[in-house]
Known about the structure:
It is built from three helices and 16 strands. The protein has helices at 3-24, 119-125, 134-137, and strands spanning 29-45, 51-67, 71-80, 91-103, 106-114, 144-152, 158-165, 180-187, 193-202, 211-221, 225-235, 245-256, 259-270, 280-290, 295-306, 313-323. It has 324 residues and is mainly beta. It has a 16-stranded antiparallel β-barrel with strand order 1-2-3-4-5-6-7-8-9-10-11-12-13-14-15-16.
Amino acid sequence: MNKKHLVAAILAVGMMTAAHAQDESKKKFEIKPIATGMMSLYGEFPEEGTKFGFNLDRSYFGAEAKVGGEWSFKFVVDCGKSSDVDDYQRIIYIKNALVQWKRNAWSLRFGLIGTNVFNSQEKFWGKRYVMKSFQDEYKFGTSADLGVAAEWSPSKVVSVDAIIVNGEGYKKLQVEKGLLYGLGVTVKPIDGMTLRVYGDLNQRPDNGTPQKTLNVMAGYRNSRFSLAAEGNFSFDQSGTKEKNQSGVSAYGSVRAGKCDIFARYDYLTSRGDWNKAKDGGMALVGVEVPVCKWVKVAPNARIWMPANGNKATASAYVSVQFAL
């Protein structure tokens, strides 16, 4: 299956869905607005001098509509920073434009969809506005892409998900190159515990060598605390043979009244010296304070310890999220 066939299949399914949705429109219709903003006040303390400033890290706007009992539609735009423009400017991307169908143990999503790469990890971390989850932060995968995803949940204990997408992420919706094929298994053996394994293969025929990723995750959560750890591996990154990278991340939180005290540690390493300047460890600690139903504030401190022997760098943030 090539990119053109994938896009044609998505359009065909979309047209059939639209026709079916007209019949479903007589049933109950619900719409939920989506509006989220993430910003921060920061202070960095490198050797060359202290830096202070404000960041508008991310903004999401859109809506999700449910039609009848099986079909739903979602459209979200993402306003964020891009390396292609000045740091003070923002670019608007379409983050999600999808149709979803659910029946019994099955679900199907198609269009510009959220991927399954690090969805479970991001939910367990639960502090996206403070810092991205490991795979997102260090570019092991993308959070959304153009394609099709399916999930089968035969019981509350086991679910299996598969995805076929563009492979370049939601910011590069090209159709000339190869596809990404992913498969994941999630197991919840007891209440509160999640175990997950996921792997994918990105064809990338322009470079000749498919890129492979693998990640494993284990986490436990109850009303008092949460704790999780994950291992991440990327092989032949960007289609370059033996350009391998790996890393681990551990994070958790403890409930203190209405607040959460949280901590996290990441370690990123690469084979050879191709990424030596970005390899190293990161430690973070903070407290999340719910100001009201729609606003969270999280003062936090971080330290970056580079693997190349350079001096560690400390920073402090006040991260803020407001969301409907």
